[in-house]
């Protein structure tokens, strides 16, 4: 039996897909990269934005079409946040395309449900299997402990390993669906996190990315004094790991100890994704973000003072209910002041169950939202482009994380600050740290060339390889 998996949304979802792949493979399924070959198609969904949800229904329509063309219907499983949120409504809305719905806390049920659905299929009058009579739904038990058997995850990235440390969130920001789809906050045991990190290092991964909805709220359930900065120190000790990243911290939990840990631990990347969501304290209050513009700017100043080469990125929402032109101007001025290296920006859309969705009229017109997002993105592009231009001539350590599919000897990697760098080099540099000098800048990434000592060392190593018998 072959499975095909497609995933949308955040790194947490990408990591859930890795978990599902591992579970399916340990149950005897083989992965295929073509949905036309698959017996089981898994769509791992995101519901943070309305558009992500719409995409699911479009994809389900396409899968139905493909099944018609091929004369066979694969089993279709929908997992992730939309599955958790919609449950059996999803079955009705998908007009019978979906066989299995698996919520965010029930990932481990997928192989069993898939096997059940496949064996339930009966030959129809025209000789093709029919759909299962009733779809299978597993969305209950939303508060399962966030432990996961070691060694099952099938990591999709050859260089980077995602390690979940917290699941769920208790903050209930007014716009956010996560507490309703991922449940309340649950901390993973420190011992399990370290075991995962060691296993990732042993499998050749060089970078660990620690994941949590509010990653810096971590407190180890099995070692109470261990908070997030202490966890960073513990992961820093894992041999073979060269870089540590984390996503996403909340501004109000970004303590002096965390800033000091980022400054003092060389493996911790000098990049902080610090979601702000709006530049106006009034809107932040409506959003229930529990920080003001002033507190955020003060935090940014303290981070930059401690770590001058840090690169910052953020999330921003425009057109939140009640946002005025003056509020939006504050978003623009905060963006200009902080000068982020990158930004994820979105037009507000109502999400089910959220406080804003239930109690705040979506009163900013779509035209105004569009005008605001266009202005914000134009400003961000100009800041980014200026920062990239200024980086020309500087040399950075880049962790090579991909080789180009189109061009031989073209590599891609990231600096500690998370800038994507393209540069020429041999494919066997994948997973290595290479010093690269930036030569050219584009809107989203930069181009460089390996700095001299790296080139010489590499050529010497290659010469030594050739001389070996
Ligand atoms: Fe959502 Fe707010 Fe929790 Fe982040 S902190 S996951 S935005 S509720």
What does this structure look like?
The protein has helices at residues 11-26, 50-70, 81-86, 88-93, 110-120, 178-182, 190-202, 228-236, 256-264, 281-287, 293-306, 325-338, 355-359, 366-390, 452-467; strands at 2-7, 30-31, 40-45, 75-80, 100-102, 136-138, 160-164, 166-167, 186-187, 207-211, 243-247, 271-273, 311-318, 342-347, 395-403, 410-415, 420-424, 433-441, 446-450. The protein has a 6-stranded parallel β-sheet with strand order 2-1-3-4-5-6, sandwiched between helices. It is an alpha/beta fold. The protein binds iron/sulfur cluster (SF4).
Briefly characterize the structure.
The chain is α/β, with parallel strands linked by helices. The chain has helices spanning 11-26, 50-70, 81-86, 88-93, 110-120, 178-182, 190-202, 228-236, 256-264, 281-287, 293-306, 325-338, 355-359, 366-390, 452-467; strands at residues 2-7, 30-31, 40-45, 75-80, 100-102, 136-138, 160-164, 166-167, 186-187, 207-211, 243-247, 271-273, 311-318, 342-347, 395-403, 410-415, 420-424, 433-441, 446-450. The radius of gyration is 24 Å and the shape is globular.
Over the alpha carbons, how many angstroms does the gyration radius reach?
A: 24 Å
Structural class from helices and strands?
alpha/beta
- What share of the residues does DSSP label as strand, in percent? 15-25%
The main sheet comes to: 6 strands, parallel
Distance between the termini: 44 Å
Q: What ligands are attached or bound here? A: iron/sulfur cluster
- Give the rounded overall mean pLDDT: 90
Strand order of the largest sheet: 2-1-3-4-5-6
Number of DSSP helical runs: 15
Global morphology? globular
DSSP E strands, number: 19
- The portion of residues assigned to helices is 25-40%
Low-confidence segments, ≥5 residues, pLDDT <50?
Answer: 122-130, 465-469
